Amino acid sequence: MSANAITVNELTVDYDGVTAIEDVYFAVHAEKLTAIVGPNGAGKSTLIKALLGLIPTRTGTISCFGKSPKQYRKDISYVPQRAQIDWEFPANVFDVVAMGLYGELGLLRRFSSAHKDRVRSALTDVDMADFATRQISQLSGGQQQRVFLARSIVQDAKLILLDEPFGGIDAKSEAVIVDILRRQKQNGKSIVAVHHDLSTVKDYFDDVILLNKTVTAFGPVNDVFTKTNVEKTYGVSNLDFLTGRA
Amino acid sequence: MFDDFYLISFVPILTGLFSALSCTLVGNILVLRKRAMLSDTISHVVLPGIVISFLIFGNLGSYFMLVGAGIAGLTAVGTIAVLRIYTSMDNSAAMATTLSVFFAAGVLMIELTAGGNVHLDVEHALYGNLESLIWIDGESLMSVFDPVARQTIPVELTRAIIGFVLIMTVMLVCWRFLIVSTFDQTFAEISGVPVGIVSAGVALAATLAAVISFAAVGSIIVVSMFVCPPAAARVLTQSFRDQVCLSVSFSAISAVLGYVVAGYVPILLGFETSISAAGTIATLSGVILVCAIFYSKRQRSYDFIDGHQT
After folding, report:
1. Would you give the DSSP letter of residue A41?
2. In chain B, what's the furthest Cα-to-Cα distance?
3. Is the sign of the CA dihedral B272, B277, B281, B286 positive or negative?
């Protein structure tokens, strides 16, 4: 049995004065691809922010590889939603991936040729090595997402948290990104992604957490991602198309 | 006509130059953070602080004036935060409200108290008093190395140089943190970058640049130097480092050329008096911005690829 990457117990978080998630508990297995799935307003983003230690929690505990939130920051890498970023920012692909090393380098340590090699190697991992000098505004949505994945890979964190990695990108790019995530998993990374498309959950992910303010169910997709559980999470009863892909 | 260059022009040119450079350096960050309005706000709200310090200490040369302006600037930043948190006002509305009320209060204070004082009136708050920075003992470049002559260099220049060196040093040292927290704040925070301190530092640097420049060059130059050179460089380059270098060049060209044009061109053309240096410098920076936009539009129409805007 593999160890847990994340263990969450009785977690309640208020956001903007409203209880966003309540009494949430789940475990994320290490070296798996895990989806967080739920309707709009289910508290997915709040949960991510809480896992990252960006917002205070009311009750409950979070541990990551057996460490408390303050200690595990360096073990986590975060890939934000593409829409939250100003892609007109004056930077090229290499610059953005290099930002993954700034936390480690601090202000004054030299950006050495070894660091350059790490950036190039991460770009190769996402098949973007030829785009190193390309301005980020000149990339397609899928390519932008791959650059962010490279920035995450260069951090060499054990856990990668992604907020809707497939938002607004085409099917071909989606397949490329899934492939990258699977390879990272084989390299020993644990990956958690907020995911919207119910029809691809079973194809892309090993485990799933069904969330709507509380956790409806969590575990391997084949056991947990059932019509009953999904309907319970979304509060609707016409999701028959899901079973077709089982 | 250039005989008295060191007496009347040397100090104003350098003061204008270093003030402009300080504002432009910070402006690069503000423009990318979409906080350019902050420079506008700070450069106006410092007025009541300056007036109050002037009333208490009696002259504009004192460092207390800087403290007064600084306190006014920070009070305004606090007021903006309070307005945003306790009302449903958005950021720009909160800034616009704060800057107009503070500036108006400053104007009222001047009218009610200072009256006919040459150094403190509304006109100088807007246009500054670059032309009044006369270096009594300035005879040639060698005067800079003469300790006695150096003592009569107006304090505004010394301040502008100190402010510029300070801002440039901090910016170079914090370069990485500035870039990553401006591009992607959440990612920066998780990477261990102290984003709160960086944001406060940017606001503080903007206040410092505005306060140091305000008394010498007035709010018109301050606002234009914060925004125009970085915005012009922004449309011409695709790397942050190039943007900063280019904006600094534009800023320097505007400051030096603007002063020279204002001071000498009208006289060469046979007019009796020169025109406002601050106004000319600010206008020139605007002209550079317009040229940069037209130039970049032309370039872009050639590079339009794959339906993605370049």
Report:
1. T
2. 66
3. negative
Question: Angle, to 10 degrees, between the axis of helix B195-236 and the axis of helix B240-268?
Answer: 60
Q: A144: distance to nearest CA of chain B, Å?
A: 13
pLDDT for B302 equals 59
Q: Do A100 and B176 touch (CB under 8 A)?
A: no
**What digits encode the pLDDT tens for the residues B280-300?**
999 999 999 999 999 988 876
Give chain A positions within 8 Å (CB) of B242: 90
Mean pLDDT of B120-139: 75
Output the DSSP codes for B111-146. IIIITT-SSSSHHHHHH--GGG---TT--SGGGGG-
Which of B177, B184, B309 shows the shortest C-beta gap to A80?
A: B184
DSSP per residue over B203-246, as a string? HHHHHHHHHHHHHHHHHHHHHHHHHHHHHHHHHH-SSHHHHHHH
Q: Hey, where are the domains in chain B?
A: 5-302
Chain-centre distance for alpha carbon A239? 25
According to CATH, what is the number of the domain B5-302?
A: 1.10.3470.10
Measure CB to CB from residue A54 to each of B183, B189, B193 and give the nearest one. B189
Domain count, chain A: 1
Q: What phi and psi, each to the nearest 5 degrees, are found at residue B153?
A: -65, 130
User: How do residues B144-158 score in pLDDT, each as one tens digit?
Assistant: 888 888 888 888 898
3 state SS of A128: coil
Closest residue, chain B, to A72 (C-alpha): B190
Neighbouring-strand partners of residue A193? A35, A162
For residue A149, pLDDT beyond 80? yes
Closest residue in A to B310 (Cα) is A138
- Containing structural domain, residue A183: 4-244
CA-CA distances (angstroms) from residue A93 to A183, B113, B208, B293?
21, 58, 34, 24
CATH number at residue A116: 3.40.50.300
Distance of alpha carbon B217 from alpha carbon B222, whole angstroms: 7
- Interface check for A84 against chain B (CB to CB < 8 A): the answer is yes
- Please name the residue that has the structure tokens 């130039």: B295
Helix axes B155-173, B10-32, angle to 10 degrees: 30
Separation CA B172–CA B178 (nearest Å): 9
